[in-house]
Structures are given as structure tokens and as C-alpha cells.
Amino acid sequence: MRRLPLVVAVLGYCWGGSALADASAASADDLRDRETRPCIACHAAISQTFAATRMARSALGQTFRSEWHGQHSPAACLSCHAPSGDAGVVCADCHGVGGHPYPKLQVPQVCARCHDAPGERTVQGFRASPAAALGQDCLDCHLPEGRAASDHAFQGPTVPGFLDRVATIRLLLRHDSATAPVAVVQVTHRAGHALPGGTTGRSVWLIVSGLASDGAPVWSERVRFGWEHPPEQGWQDRTLPPGRPAVLELPQPGRHGAARLHAELWYRFAPGDWSEPDPRARRLDAAELALPQDARALR
Ligand code: HEC
Ligand code: HEC
Ligand code: HEC
Ligand code: HEC
Ligand code: HEC
After folding, report:
1. Is 231 a member of any domain?
2. Given pLDDT bands bounded at 50, 70 and 90, which one contains residue 34?
3. How far apart are CA 109 and CA 187, in angstroms?
């Protein structure tokens, strides 16, 4: 299929203090006891909630395992996927190993260790986002609504419902006197960083079709948003930025007898092209626009 003639116009953490340094909250025996028992003995709810997250199993995921083995299992991958040699991220990877009293964590600094290091830019993107300007942080969006900052659910796009109402498409016509009307597609989203957020193979696809009056598609075009690695070039950031709409223009929307436009936005988990199946793909939004007579006339 032909490429879309669209124009994208947007275009250390540390811990301190010994476990016994502050004996004011509890007796020395009690504190010593805490350090010798697993966290779950006293923090059962937090430990169970966290165990169900992607992070807690980030060295076990099928996609990770096949990519990791494919590269002959470099240890460097585990510095984020399982820094403490476990199935994934563990308590100490964020809270440190100093023991009680633990210092209060700074968000997003503590997340940057893994969500910003080479190849990851989520925290950087967040710092420049309207969400950060409004005083929000990662936990405002990645914990279930209304839950305390100490909740450890860390939900993301893999959690059912998380992607509901994340992005919106608007279709409109722009009338220039010189030319036939041009269709304009606006894509906005409410993630606190780029969409898609990660740098792995995840992508967002915009599919625009022209439909005849009987609803049959007469043309169709698509654009991918995400990180791309074209041959002989470095990684290219073609994600949807936070805060401002991506605006795409589509000349001659009425070609081949199209009477209306249909647009869909999809989130894909599987790397690869649109034609490769992805059973987990989610439709983020859809929109339609009837074309007036002057937009239908072919020029
Ligand atoms: C991905 C980072 C991360 C991991 C991993 C993590 N936590 Fe936390 N934890 C936080 C953040 C952020 C807070 C809120 C800020 C703070 O209190 O320091 C927090 C707060 C807490 C609190 C204080 C709760 C309160 O009400 O004040 C406890 C207790 C806690 N975590 C225990 C654990 C235990 C036990 C584990 C392992 C099962 C764990 N955490 C794993 C990030 C993490
Ligand atoms: C013997 C019970 C017990 C064990 C075991 C335990 N904790 Fe705690 N933890 C507590 C209590 C009680 C508090 C509430 C604060 C206090 O009284 O000092 C607390 C508070 C915390 C806090 C909030 C900051 C602070 O220090 O007050 C964090 C973070 C935390 N625990 C993490 C952990 C981690 C990580 C582990 C496992 C390595 C762990 N805890 C093991 C009982 C325990
Ligand atoms: C205003 C809400 C909001 C804020 C603030 C926010 N996020 Fe997100 N995040 C989202 C939404 C919505 C998605 C799902 C869409 C996507 O992938 O971008 C997401 C996706 C993600 C993903 C998964 C991306 C992938 O493709 O695997 C990660 C990881 C993530 N966020 C981490 C963070 C971290 C770390 C912070 C803080 C620095 C943060 N987010 C701040 C809303 C937010
Ligand atoms: C030690 C490294 C590490 C730290 C620190 C860390 N993360 Fe993660 N995080 C990961 C890895 C690795 C994944 C990918 C898990 C996967 O998809 O297998 C991930 C995934 C996520 C996701 C996506 C979950 C989903 O359902 O797709 C969110 C949201 C997230 N992290 C938020 C945070 C926040 C917020 C912080 C800071 C409080 C943080 N992380 C700190 C390593 C880390
Ligand atoms: C700097 C920290 C860091 C390093 C190093 C790292 N990753 Fe990740 N990885 C992440 C984070 C954070 C996520 C989740 C957010 C995202 O999608 O980018 C992730 C997600 C992934 C995913 C997607 C998981 C899924 O189920 O969708 C794969 C696969 C992956 N990483 C493979 C690797 C491999 C292979 C290496 C080593 C060559 C590696 N990673 C090194 C931080 C890291």
C-alpha cells in the first residue's frame, strides 16, 4: 500500500542511616526482627499487590525472555529487569537496602534509574509534560484511582481498562480558497509522557479510510507512531508528544468517490508491522466525517 501523503505538523538514588539509627519508633529488638524477616511478614498487602505487577515479573515475561536469549542473555539487561537477581524488580530496588527507617522516596527520581537510563525516556518525557506542570507525578496515573501513594499496583497498558479513553481522534475539513478542502486529523492523548510511553516495540497506529456511500472502503492509509530504527540511522522518536495534538493533513479526501472518512487509532504491543497479528492490540478511538459535495469532487 502507498505511504500516507500526510504531513505531521507537530511536531542516584541513595539511602542513608543505619537500621538502628532511629530507635524512637520501635525498640531495637523489634527493628532487628524486621530486618531478618521477609517484608511480606509485616507488609502483606503491599507485597501481594506488588507481586501481581509487571515490574515484579519483568525478567520472566515471554517477550523479554525471547529478546534476551536472542541476544545471548547479556547481564546488562538485568540491571533494570532484575537488578537483585530475582524474577523482576524487588522492594530493595526502590527502597534501598539500608533497612528501617527507610527514607521517603522521591518520585519520579527513583523511577528514573530504570525508566530513563540509555534507551528509556519516560521520565524525561514526563518532566516536560503538562502533567508535571500541574504537579502530578507517575503515581497519580499509575495507581488505581483514589489510592494512596503507598499502594503498589503500578498499573500500565497491560492492565485491562488502563487504555480506555487515553487518546482521541478528531476529523475535520479545512477550506482553503485555492484548493479543494483538505481533511485534517487531530490526535490528542492524556498520558503524562509520549504515547506510546516505552521504547520497546509498542506502537500506536492511525488508520484513515475513505468510504463510498455504500460503506465500502475505496482507499486506506496508515501511520505508525513509536520509536523506529530505519536502516543506517539511529533510533528515531516518532511518538505522539504529550500535551499538544499531533495534526495530520490529508489532501483529496474525496478521491476514488469517497463520501465519508473513517479513522481509527490502535495500540499495539507486538513489535513489527501492522500486518502482523497482535491479539492484545486495543482500539483507542474511532471517528467518522461525512464529506460535503465540494470535498468529493475530484480535482
Ligand atoms: C517501583 C518502586 C517501588 C518498589 C519496587 C516498592 N516500592 Fe514501596 N514505595 C514506593 C513509593 C514510590 C512509595 C511512596 C513514597 C514513600 O513512602 O517513600 C512507597 C511506599 C512504601 C511504604 C510506605 C507506605 C506508607 O503508607 O507510608 C512501604 C511500607 C513500602 N513502600 C513497602 C514496600 C515493600 C514491602 C515492597 C516490596 C514488596 C515495596 N515497597 C516495593 C515505591 C516502591
Ligand atoms: C517485623 C515487621 C516488619 C518487617 C519484617 C518489615 N517491615 Fe517495613 N515497616 C514495619 C512497620 C511497623 C512500619 C511502620 C513504621 C514504623 O513503625 O517504623 C514499617 C515501615 C516501612 C516503610 C516506610 C518507611 C519507614 O521506614 O518507616 C518502608 C519503606 C518499609 N517498611 C519497607 C520494608 C521492606 C522493604 C521490608 C523488607 C526488606 C520491610 N519493610 C520489612 C514493619 C516491618
Ligand atoms: C497523566 C497521566 C500519566 C503520568 C503522570 C504518567 N503516566 Fe505513564 N502512562 C500513562 C498512560 C495513559 C499510559 C498508557 C499509554 C502509553 O503507553 O503511553 C502510560 C504508559 C506508561 C508505561 C508503559 C509504556 C510501555 O509502552 O510499556 C510506563 C513504563 C510508564 N507509563 C511509566 C511512567 C512513569 C515512570 C511516570 C513518571 C515519570 C509516568 N508514567 C507518568 C499515563 C501517565
Ligand atoms: C529497577 C528498575 C525499575 C525501577 C526503579 C522502576 N521500574 Fe517500572 N518497570 C521496570 C521494568 C523492567 C518494567 C517492564 C516490565 C515488563 O513489562 O516486563 C517496568 C514497567 C513499569 C510500568 C508498566 C506496567 C505495565 O502494566 O505495563 C509502570 C507503570 C512502571 N514501571 C512504573 C514505575 C514507577 C512509577 C516507578 C518509580 C516509582 C518505577 N516504575 C520504577 C523497571 C523499573
Ligand atoms: C535502563 C533500564 C533497562 C535496561 C538496561 C533494559 N530494559 Fe528492557 N525495559 C525497561 C523498561 C523500563 C521497560 C518497560 C517500559 C518500556 O516498554 O520501555 C522495558 C521493557 C522491555 C521489554 C518489553 C516487555 C514486554 O513484555 O512487552 C522487553 C522485551 C525488554 N525490555 C527487553 C530488554 C532487553 C533484551 C534488554 C537488554 C538488551 C533490556 N530490555 C534492557 C528497562 C530496561
Report:
1. yes
2. low
3. 30
If one compares 230 and 43, the residue with the highest pLDDT of the two is: 43
Domain membership flag for residue 152:
no
pLDDT of residue 18: 30
146-150, 205-209, 230-234: the lowest-pLDDT one:
146-150
- Report the separation in Å between the CA atom of 267 and the middle of ligand 1, taken as the mean of its atom positions: 30
Q: Give every CB contact of residue 105 below 8 A, 6+ residues apart in sequence.
A: 94, 95
What is the domain extent for residue 125?
Answer: 28-142
Q: Please give the pLDDT value at position 299.
A: 45
Ligand 2 centroid – CA 55 distance (Å): 20
With DSSP H G I counted as helix, E B as strand and the rest as coil, what are the percentages for the chain, rounded to 5? 25, 20, 55
134: Cβ below 6 Å to ligand 2?
Answer: no
Cα 118 to the center of its chain, rounded Å: 17
Looking at all shown ligands, the one closest to residue 97's CA atom is 2
Ligand 5-lining residues (CB < 6 angstroms): 61, 63-64, 67-68, 71, 74, 76-77, 79-81, 114-115, 117, 119-120, 198-200, 202
Quick one: how far is CA 72 from the chain centroid? 27
- State in Å: Cα 148 to ligand 5 middle: 27
Tally of domains in the chain: 2
What CATH code is carried by the domain that includes residue 237? 2.60.40.10
The residue from 142, 159, 186 where one domain ends is 142
pLDDT at 5 over 50: no
Q: Same domain for 204 and 277? A: yes
